[in-house]
Amino acid sequence: MPLNQQETIYEKAVLVGVVTAGLSREVVEEHLDELQLLAETAGAKSVGRFTQRVSRINPKFFIGKGKAEQIVQQAKALDATLIIFDDELSPTQVRNYQKFTESLKVIDRTALILDIFTQHARTREAKTQVELARLQYMLPRLTRMWTHLERQMGGIGTRAGAGETQIEVDRRLVRDRISKLKTEMKAIETERATQSKRRGEKFRVSLLGYTNAGKSTLMKALTGVDVYIKDQLFATLDTTIRSLTLGRKREALISDSVGFIRKLPHGLVASFRSTLREAIESDLLVIVADASVQLLEQQLETVKEVISSISAGEKDSLLVLNKIDILTPEELKGLRARYPDAVFISALEHSSLDMLKTAISDMMEESFRTAEVIFGPKRGKEISSVYDTVEVVERWYTEDGIHLKIKGERSAVGRVLLLAGNGVE
User: Distance of alpha carbon 10 from its chain centroid, rounded?
Assistant: First the structure.
């Protein structure tokens, strides 16, 4: 909570990661680095972290009871008020921690991400989607103890939903609220579908990627239109759609939306389905990744999993590795060898954006429609307008008139066919 321009109060938190089969301690530490960034985005400062190797998950505390008690004691010694697990805790595990942590809150990665989304939601659609996901997550975790903690403690993990001072703990009221939000979401989805139809047959490109990969910066660099940009996880929750000029009479609609992250809560993916409609209905997915991160391959796999979960896995895609301005020549050379089909750019420095536009244009061309039309010799004005609308591949003259072989977006070619009153594909 900002006090003034110079001072900010952060909750103190300790982070907990678990080393299971198939995960090394080094990877878990990297995961905790990301969890720390999430905590900072939510308004918490990490004052310690703990890891434990387990052969099986403890149904009561996720980790061993002795280790759980040790973490709670050390968290208190560090004057922390918050313990954050990198894995999702079951309702039972949350309740067990509540029983012996007294003044400490124990939350998981899902609750932390939901908290961030709650803070960053600005539009009616985003607020509705986030509140729905948050209530669905909280419903099985509602207890009298939780209510007491929420009233007395507040802060991360207990933040009230959009438009409310606190979450009602009565299960019936929560279910009623969930039902109402689902009805609102259906109306929003209908509105989205109507907006999508209005965009007609324009070629549509969606920027997708891991959170903080630079999608919004790229959106601004490509279109020149101001969009909200901040070096922060989940700075963008709403879909922004702009026109992208590619040259040679080619224009596409490009969209930027919410970023993805490892272990993105399933409830959020489901709730944000209307926001992700642009990706679902796009002709091309541009996967934007931060080329400088150590876990690049894991992040790309996460993006792939989320795209598959929204039924967009079969769409044409183009990999774009961003932020090459902070790579060494050796690092860049290594990445080019690993990802030979990727386009390497720096959105911040506007580096290699022409290469990206060319790549998008080439993939766009594969969806183009070709046709032949005939205009009378006295229809010079109409012929001139054709050159402004589509690409004229060939022009020749016969006794019938002026023949044009044209190529372009299906909607644009269709308009030319109507203008000419004739034509064949």
Answer: 26
- pLDDT value of position 147: 46
User: Strand pairing partners for 392?
Assistant: 406
Q: Are 149 and 81 in contact (CB under 8 A)?
A: no
Q: Which of 348, 365, 382 is the last residue of a domain?
A: 365
Containing H/E element for 244? strand 240-247
Q: Each residue of 51-107: pLDDT tens digit?
A: 999 989 999 999 999 999 999 999 999 999 999 999 999 989 988 888 877 778 999
Bridge partners, residue 53, by sequence: 19
Judge whether residue 232 has pLDDT over 60. Answer: no
Residues 6+ apart with CB under 8 A from 120: 126, 234, 235, 237
One DSSP character per residue, 195-212 reads HHHHTTT--EEEEEEBTT
Question: Are residues 75 and 216 both part of a single domain?
Answer: no
Q: Give me the DSSP letters along 278-345.
A: HHHH-SEEEEEEETT-TTHHHHHHHHHHHHHHTT-TTSEEEEEEE-GGGS-HHHHHHHHHH-TTPEE-
- Using the predicted structure, report yes or no on whether residue 3 has a pLDDT greater than 60: no
Long-range contacts of the stretch 348-356 (C-beta < 8 A, 24+): 348/214, 348/217, 348/221, 348/323, 349/325, 350/221, 351/324, 351/325, 352/324, 353/221, 353/222, 356/222, 356/320
Which of left, alpha, beta for 6 (phi over 0: left; psi -120 to 50: alpha)?
alpha
CA pair distance 257, 239, nearest whole angstrom = 4
Tokens of 417: 């066919």
SS3 content of the chain, % helix, strand, coil (to 5): 45, 25, 35
Q: Tell me the residue ranges of DSSP E strands in 27-131.
A: 44-53, 82-85, 105-108
Owning domain of residue 68: 11-113
CATH of the domain at 383: 3.30.70
Residues 224 and 313 in one domain: yes
Residues 236 and 163 in one domain: no
**Element (DSSP H or E) covering residue 397:** strand 391-398
2 in any annotated domain? no
**∠ CA(246), CA(248), CA(250), 5° rounding?**
50
Task: Name the one residue in this structure whose structure tokens are 């060494």.
Answer: 328
- pLDDT averaged over every residue in the chain: 84
Single-letter amino acid, residue 250: R
Residues 231, 298: one domain? yes
SS3 at position 54: coil
Same domain membership, residue 233 and residue 87: no
Instruction: Give me the mean pLDDT over the 342-371 stretch.
Output: 91
